Structures are given as structure tokens and as C-alpha cells.
Amino acid sequence: MGYSKKLRCLLLLVVLLVVTYASGEDPYRFYTWNVTYGDIYPLGVKQQGILINGQFPGPQIESVTNDNLIISVFNSLDESFLISWNGVQQRRNSWQDGMYGTNCPIPPGKNFTYVLQVKDQIGSYFYFPSLAFHKAAGGYGGIKIASRSVIPVPFPPPAGDFTILAGDWYKRNHTDLRAILDGGSGLPFPDGLIINGHGSNAYTFTVDHGKTYRFRISNVGLTTSINFRIQGHKMVLVESYSVLVTADQPPQDYYIVVSTRFTSQVLTATSILHYSNSAKSVSGPPPGGPTTQIDWSLEQARSLRRNLTASGPRPNPQGSYHYGLINTTRTIRLQNSAPIINGKQRYAVNSVSFIPADTPLKLADYFKIPGVFNLGSIPDNPTGGGGYLQTSVMAADFRAYVEIVFENPEDSVQSWHIDGHHFFVVGMDGGQWSSSSRSNYNLRDTISRCTVQVYPKSWSAVYMPLDNVGMWNVRSENWARQYLGQQFYVRVYSPANSWRDEYPIPSVCRVLILVVDWALGKLDCRMRLSLTTCNVVPTNSMRFERHLKSNYDCLKCKIKTHDVELRAWRFTTCVQRGTHFPPFQSHNRTVSTIEFSLRRKRERERDNTSFFQC
Ligand SMILES: *[C@@H]1O[C@H](CO)[C@@H](O)[C@H](O)[C@H]1NC(C)=O
Ligand SMILES: *[C@@H]1O[C@H](CO)[C@@H](O)[C@H](O)[C@H]1NC(C)=O
Ligand SMILES: *[C@@H]1O[C@H](CO)[C@@H](O)[C@H](O)[C@H]1NC(C)=O
Ligand SMILES: *[C@@H]1O[C@H](CO)[C@@H](O)[C@H](O)[C@H]1NC(C)=O
Ligand SMILES: *[C@@H]1O[C@H](CO)[C@@H](O)[C@H](O)[C@H]1NC(C)=O
Ligand SMILES: *[C@@H]1O[C@H](CO)[C@@H](O)[C@H](O)[C@H]1NC(C)=O
Ligand SMILES: *[C@@H]1O[C@H](CO)[C@@H](O)[C@H](O)[C@H]1NC(C)=O
Known about the structure:
614 residues, globular, 4 domains, single chain, Immunoglobulin-like, 6-stranded mixed sheet
């Protein structure tokens, strides 16, 4: 990566800012990303996609456990934008999680620098745009976190390392899809599947005969669960989710296949596994995969086990390597549903369909801004009642060890993700979960993950250490469901208020303090802003106007900003004609930029009542 000298200085500055809470010994990796629209052709038709540095999928993050990542994101779109980091645990650092509940969006034309550390974890993950259904336009890329060399993995280094970002795709763009959802309908069936941005047979992985390769696999799609297989080859699962594949078959080309699961129409996309000494191109139909076999799927999912005698990094919740021996302190049952609310399709969990607040919940929590959310606004158990809208936040205690049962009474497959944590999938089965289901839990050698599938009319249970203070998004990974409310936040709270438990608020993440001073006698007004808003320092122009009406004398202070979120604001004050204006007044508001724009109208109305009526 080449940086201009100026940029390097900037990055150094950022480093100085963060060095106080990132271990000085862990290396830094710097990325500068420009997010733009550009033409892409995933299914052969031209579409406007979201590119990162001109690429779709975006550049891969290559990191090693404990690396610090400094990622400057410049938003060159015409809409606000946010990036989240699927699977990155953000230890002590929900400030950088990039969900709408934790971060202000990056306004068009602005930039934000994410400062995060891939602490104590390995694996294959991905980043994606978390706002406004942008995920349907791309904007995603792989994140690879390799094990540190001091902790050897139980297999020789593979001859190559490939990333597979697969998922469903629509020919309609994200604004059209968003309009369908906003209009109260569910998402239509996707138009196809893609692998690394390409439709069938447009992507080739070249291997040498006899060597072993690693494939890192992520489902980056919007709504369908997918199956992955390689014609004629065995895959050994070594991490979530990567597999080792040995090129031990006769040298020719083979299909790499992804296909949809639990869909009545099956979509398939293929790539090519090409032996460098291949004698033959791919032949025959691509091998078929499972579609709706729930029992087979449960069996397969339960067969994923950790090899307890193998070396390599191992999770140790609460300082114990035996996740199954720790007593749980709370059981949370989460049931998904698809209610119609106010005539529109919504999706809910325990009957609550999440609606975003004006202010990021994390900031509202930090600045104690009242009225944004209430703790306990989502119950711990299914209510069986109809769906309702709410900015739902669940309260939870730092260091608790919880059992979460995801219950899926619907006919479609479900996928749940929890930010900031990893969990142990102790059980899953068909039918209704009950306390006696616990007798079949795997308390020995299940794998830890951050996303779990819940098969149709089935349940999945996990044990999760709440070892990360912060505000964390719990969501359906079915993106239409997430967008229409199947998500909430869990606030993991420690009263200690210590850097040991949570990093301090980043300096670029302040809430806007807007102070308007009126020097009415001098017919002047001034606006003072605290150094930064969420992401932006608005530049502003002010205009002072006087309006004489028959009975009243009104002064208007007009504030224009270059910030699209803020745009313009007016303060008006009036006195009875012939009387004097009070010499000085001060308006002092603490709002985040988003809240500011959304509240603008309301505030303006309130202003009138706080002064003389014009
Ligand atoms: C981002 O890319 C666009 C289009 O190529 C370009 O106009 C803009 O200057 C770039 N911005 C940055 C910060 O590099
Ligand atoms: C945005 O980019 C400018 C120019 O590179 C830099 O000075 C500023 O610190 C960046 N702001 C954030 C919030 O990253
Ligand atoms: C999406 O497509 C519609 C036409 O179907 C078009 O009007 C709109 O501008 C497009 N939006 C984007 C962001 O490309
Ligand atoms: C578990 O790991 C050990 C040590 O690497 C290995 O010998 C053994 O074959 C592995 N077991 C399975 C089932 O893979
Ligand atoms: C778990 O709870 C049981 C019963 O209350 C108790 O006997 C046991 O010691 C506890 N185990 C741990 C690890 O705290
Ligand atoms: C805004 O008002 C509050 C309470 O009235 C005060 O504590 C704070 O200092 C004021 N902020 C500014 C920037 O004047
Ligand atoms: C408040 O005052 C503004 C400016 O005079 C006016 O446009 C607006 O309608 C008033 N709002 C209410 C609720 O009276």
C-alpha cells in the first residue's frame, strides 16, 4: 500500500491517539478505503455496486491475532454509510462495531477512521455495509485472522489460501429492494448466487496436484442459507469457517459449488477448481447438495466437533477450558416471528420488532441522553403476543454466563448472529425446546462461533460468556429480516467504569453540543460547536434576519452547515412590537448529528412555544 506523506502523518497521529489503550507490542496495519459507486456485472447485467478502492468484493484484510487495524473509510457515496465487522469481537470496544446502534453513519463526502484490534481470535470473517440495505450493492470483503506463530495450528501450512465470499444476489439495486421493504413487503426470491462477485464459472482457483489448500468460506448474501461443496474432494473443517482441501484427484478441473438450502427453487453457482496440470475441463452436472432435509442437516451440524487433542488456540470462557462445566446464570429464549404491524410486513424477536433510535444507543447510554431507549424493552422469553415496534435493548451483566435458546417456529431457516461475542453451540433439534432438552447438550467438544443456524421448526441452544462490556447487536443474518426489525441490542454492563473493562469513548465520537448565543441587542447570533460531532466538524454560515409584522418583531437566526445531516436550522424569537428584545439568550443543546437532523422539526416547533408566540 502506498500512502502519501500527508496521509502517513495523519495515520501516525491516529496511532498516537490510540496507543494508550492498544498494546504497544501488537503490530499496526493501516488501510485507506474509498467507498464509491461503480459498474459491476455479477449476474451478467450491469449494475451500480458499492466498490471499495474500485474493487468488488473489497480488499481483504490480512491480519494476525492481536493486530491493530486502523482503517480510514472515505464515503464517496451520496448516502450515509457504515461498515461493520462480522465476527470481529471488538473486545472492550463496541465503539467501533459499525452498527447503527453504536456508531453515527459516515455522511456522504466525509470520512471516519475505525481503530480496532483483532484480539484473542482467529478465523475467517468479513466486513460489510450495515446501513440502508447497502449490503445488496456489495461493499463487503474478507477478513482473515491468522494464528500467531507462537501458537502452532495442528496442520502444516497450506500451499495456498483462498477466500470464498458467496451469497445470493439480486439484479434489482439496493434502493429498489429497500423500497420494497419500506413499502411493507418481504424480499422477493433472489436472482442468483455469486462467488467472489461472479456468477457461474467465472472464477477459477488454481491448485497444484498433491498439495493441500485452505478455503475460507463466508456467506455474504442477503437472505438464503447456502451449501458449499467441491466435486470429488473431501473437506476438513479446521476453523469457523475454513476447510483444508487436498488436490489428490486425477488432474483435471472440478466444480466448486454453492447452492441454496431450504428454498423450493434451488439456486446454484459454480467456480472452477483447476489443477495446474489439468488434462480436462469440468464435466458432467455439478454435484447436487442437500436442500430441505432437516434431520440430515441437524445430524451434520451436530457432527461439527472440536478435536480436543489437537494443538492450537482454544477459547477459555471464564478462565476455564471446559465451557460445559461452567454454571449458566441466566436463560434467554428468543423466538422469531414475522408479524404484520400497521399493515406492513415486519420481523420480530419475542414479539418486538426493532426500530432504530435517532441517536446511536451506545452514545445515548454514554451521554445519558434520556428517552432514547429503555433497558428491558425486550422480554427474556417469547410472549406469544402480537408484534409491536420498539427500540429494544436487553440489560445484561458483565461476566454472566448465559444460555440462549433460539426458537424458530417458522417454515424458513433462520440464522442468528451476536456481535462482540463467541458462543458454544451446545444443542439443536427439531420441535419445541424444553428444559429436558438440556440432557442432550454437547457439553464437551462443540465448536465456538458467532453465528448459528436454526432450522425450520427447530431450536438451537448456545452457551455464551458475556465477557465484553458494550452495546452489542443481536440480529438475524437474513438481511431483510434484520432490516425490518429482527434484531435488538444487548447492553453488557459493568459498574466498574474502568479501562480494564471498556475503552474510553474515541475522541472522534463525540456528540454535538450546539450552543446558539443570541446577542439580541446587537442583532447578532453566534453558534458554537464542540470540536466534533459524531464524525464531522460542520462548517457553518449564519444569517441574522429581522421580520417586522403587524404586532410582533421577530428575529431569526439562520444557520447553514455544509453537513448534509445538519443542513440548516433556524431559531426564531419574537417580542411584541415596540418592546425590547432581551439582551442575551443562549440555546444549548446536546444532540448527535442524526438526532439533530431528525429532531430539527420538532425542536423548531418547541422553540416557538418557549418564546413569545408570533
Ligand atoms: C474516491 O474516488 C472518487 C472516484 O474515483 C474520487 O473522485 C475521490 O477523489 C476519491 N476520494 C478519495 C478520498 O480518495
Ligand atoms: C478524515 O480525513 C482527513 C484528511 O485525510 C483527516 O485529516 C481527518 O482526521 C479524517 N477524519 C477522521 C474522523 O478520520
Ligand atoms: C436503482 O434503480 C432504479 C431503477 O430501477 C433507479 O431509479 C435508481 O437510481 C437506482 N439506484 C441506484 C443507487 O443505483
Ligand atoms: C485430532 O488431533 C490429533 C492431533 O493433531 C490427530 O492425531 C487426530 O487424528 C485428530 N482427530 C481427528 C478425529 O481428526
Ligand atoms: C454449579 O452449581 C452446582 C449446583 O449448584 C454446584 O454444585 C457446582 O459447584 C457449581 N459449579 C461451578 C463450577 O461453580
Ligand atoms: C449547556 O448547558 C448545561 C446545563 O445547562 C451546562 O452544564 C453546559 O456547560 C452548557 N454547555 C455549553 C457548551 O455551554
Ligand atoms: C414556529 O415558527 C416558525 C418560524 O416562524 C414557523 O414557520 C412555524 O410554523 C412555527 N411552528 C409552530 C408550531 O407554530
